[in-house]
Design brief:
Elements lengths: L1 H16 L5 E7 L5 E7 L1 H11 L5 H20 L23 H17 L6 E9 L7 E8 L5 E5 L10 E4 H5 L12
Antiparallel strand pairs: 1-2, 3-4, 4-5, 5-6
Helix pairs in contact: 2-3, 3-4
Length: 189
């Protein structure tokens, strides 16, 4: 019996010394999520993200942490997939393999937000379903959504406007719904 306990303890120590397995997230690209791939969030990236959320004291600070985390998760995904070729909007990236439209961005950003929530890092917000706007008949646009827990305020996480690697815009829902664009910086919080 004593030998079994020592063997069990040795196995536990060996398992504890192994690097933690990476978390896997599915992302999409190629306009309308026509292509999918899995990307890993390594233990190192996860540790960096956890550190970013440590000490967040209010909803506004959490949105800033979310902006940084979504950017970091996109950069991480770009090292493992062709999405690093994406350009802002829909036309600048031509036929690049990793091009993304707003549907792809809203899906991926929602995946990233759900990952942050699953880690227990979101204390002041919950993740909503992707939202859309149609301020003009031909201007349909989608983005990810955060909902503030305390007052139900809605925030949009929109990574579509800028070239790959830029931090997403986090904009209050009413301004975004009316057609907000990055030049409307006063609407960002």
């Amino acid at each position: 019996m004593k030998h079994t306990v020592y063997l069990f303890a040795a196995c536990l120590m060996l398992l504890a010394s192994l690097p933690a397995a990476a978390d896997t997230l599915k992302i999409c690209f190629h306009y309308g999520c026509k292509a999918e791939t899995a990307v890993n969030v390594s233990a190192v990236v996860k540790q960096q993200l956890a550190a970013r959320f440590a000490g967040v004291a209010d909803a506004a600070a959490e949105r800033e942490a979310v902006r940084d985390a979504v950017q970091q998760l996109y950069l991480n995904a770009g090292r493992q997939s062709p999405i690093y070729q994406d350009k802002g909007g829909n036309f600048s990236d031509g036929t690049a393999e990793g091009r993304m439209d707003c549907v792809d961005h809203s899906s991926n950003s929602t995946t990233f937000l759900n990952y942050l929530a699953a880690q227990g890092w979101l204390k002041f917000h919950s993740v909503g379903k992707p939202v859309y706007r149609l301020p003009r008949i031909i201007d349909l646009h989608y983005a990810a959504q955060l909902i503030e827990n305390e007052n139900g305020g809605k925030w949009v996480v929109d990574s579509w406007f800028e070239d790959f690697g830029a931090a997403p815009a986090i904009v209050d829902w009413p301004a975004w719904k009316k057609g907000w664009r990055p030049s409307d910086a006063h609407a960002q919080k």
